[in-house]
Amino acid sequence: MSTTSIQSRRDLFEHLEYTIEGTYDELVDDQELQPGQTMLKTFLIESNVTPEQLRERVDIAEAREVDFDLHELVIRRNGNKHTFFLDSSDSRFWTLYTLEESDDAKAVVKDMVSGVRNGLDYTWMPVEQQRDIMEMGEFRDVGVSYEADEVFSSDYIEDRLDFGDLSVQSSGRGTSTLFDILDSQEELSSFLSLSAVGIKREISGSFVLERVTHNGRFTTSGGDSIQLHIDTVDEIKNRYADLLQRIEEHHRISYESKEHGTGIDGTPLVIELDNEIEDVREFIENIITSKNPLRLWGAKTKLDDQYWKVKGIDLHNNDKYTMEICPEWIRLYLDEEACGNTALRIYANLQRHYDSNAVMEVLE
Amino acid sequence: MQNVSDHTQQINAWIALCQIDRTFPDSLRRLGYTVDIIDPHFFHDGDAVNPDLILTSRGHNHSIVIDCKSKTLKEEQNEKYEAIHHSPEFLLTRGVVSSAEANEDYDAEFAYSSFADLSVNPFLPENDFAVVHFDEDAKQFTIRTLEDYEFNLDELQAQFPIRTGTRRLPTDYFPFDVGTSDDDYQQFTISILQSTVHVALEHDTFDVDDLLEDAHPLWVDLDEEMKKELRAHTEKVINKYQQKGLNEHIEKVQAGNKDEWKAVSKSLQALQRKVDEFVEDVQAELEQTEIGDFAD
């Protein structure tokens, strides 16, 4: 795409608004986009690094400062170049805008967040936050995608789980009813892991059509107000940021050296499971593989036959974590410097790949 | 519970009683108790005193000074603790307790805590200490005070017996007992492995002090003798890990007259596959080592 005319935030947003109006017109008229025409993709990224440090982590062919805290980045991948606009005005939650093809955009962002100790991560939306998104507008579509096979071995799935994967995509009239019916089935409820929710949001005569995934990717299939899109992203970001802040405020264990001994502050997080673990040792061996999506390295010890302890490292930020696991719950201790996103990655991925009814209470 | 000493379990349980945790009762937190200090050390009447922790409720202006025991009690310890019990204000005036109001209403009580039944112990003192017994059955612990050894503060005593509802106590507020407790070897060895991976990814080079500071929250407050012992333990552990294959991840480098290490690979997927073997082998070899051997 030609972006030389974009010299400010305002230019960028005008360009993006033009795009979302165009995609909507094409989709309404022809139900498909013109060749080369793409939808706006917006990625919400959790960051513990600066935009300058990002350059060490991705292959940037060109970078240009467009406006204060807004950079155009041309990122090289497999010999191709992909254009993104990085808005880092919120230093903890970056917004990346792109009009690249969906698969390319996802692959670039995946490369960006997947390195060891690279300080970047997806925003991992727990099911509760995804359900809140459904309430933000008229419910349009839903993706249910339970993918135990991304985390658990085929033997584990065969022996211990009712589903290896379960995928349901629905849009249009009746979607809401279909989802309510599925949700009310007790034997299914642990496996109804939301992968994406779609809404039409209308405020004061303006509208946007948004599809929001479990890991913070917004695809805007139409609308007439880029400002409403930005506002939608911001609202969802603020809810996520609030959750993250509460985790970091209350649930990191810190110690303070005093003249006569050591003080302690903070309390662990507890994830309560609806889908009880049949064999805790096997379960642990499947979740601490150092691989995506959990990215947990660890060593385990047995406390009793069905109570085990894991001490390890989150490869996202090189933060230490400890988990105590029994069939009914997981107790998660975060180190005092740990990134709260570690807890949300573990929690949201357990909901997505093991038990969508898992509950983690975070103190207010 | 396996692989964690009774002493470490007790310390963790007392801390957990002051926390919000849906898997464990928060009986003391509801009375306002917080963990004022872990591993306090101070002097009183010319004696060094070193109980395990002090819990303080600002609302009740009251502290509980706890010594977690196995089965044995010593007369000399009873005398030290009795002196504290009868002059609690010195905990404030010396600055040992920091979470209480410094006024004449402040009170502190001393308590022995044990998994064993101390009522049969010949050295159980005849004074008004509290003595707390962690009584375990198939489903849970019942934390009860022994008859004639109850807490003086009525609201506190009214909490007992506390039923945990689970035998699965928290274990990581205080991850392993420093010193030579055999039951905590496994927690010690995996804590050192965890810290080795953590520190190696964080620093260009590191030594055993870096690992110990990372692995145990109380490291900086330990006395020099204890530090010396733990350094020797850690040298053994990390050398064993290296022999088992951790040398693919870290290598020893020369740094004057002390050993240092640095990371040579950040690929932890390969390391993950060997971790169980590492921990089991190193643990087994260390258990066969006499404690005195660590001093060499």
Structure description:
The complex is a heterodimer of chains A (364) and B (296). Chain A has 364 residues and is of the alpha+beta class. Helix content of chain A is 31%, strand content 36%. Chain A is built from ten helices and 19 strands. In chain A, strands 1, 2, 3, 4, 5, 6, 7, 8, 9, 10 and 11 form an eleven-stranded antiparallel β-sheet that branches. In chain A, strands 12, 13, 14, 15, 16, 17, 18 and 19 form an eight-stranded mixed β-sheet that branches. In chain A, strand 16 and strand 17 form a beta hairpin. Chain A is globular and about 65 Å long. The model of chain A has no long low-confidence stretch (mean pLDDT 90). Chain B is an alpha+beta fold and 296 residues long. In chain B, strands 1-4-5-6-7-8-9 form a seven-stranded mixed β-sheet. A two-stranded antiparallel ribbon of chain B has the order 2-3. Chain B has helices spanning 6-16, 75-86, 89-93, 154-157, 185-202, 208-215, 224-244, 268-287; strands spanning 33-38, 42-44, 47-49, 53-57, 62-69, 107-114, 130-136, 141-145, 162-163, 250-255, 258-263. In chain B, helix 5 (185-202) packs across helix 6 (208-215). At the A-B interface, strand 12, strand 13, strand 15, strand 16 and strand 17 of A face strand 1, helix 5 and helix 8 of B.
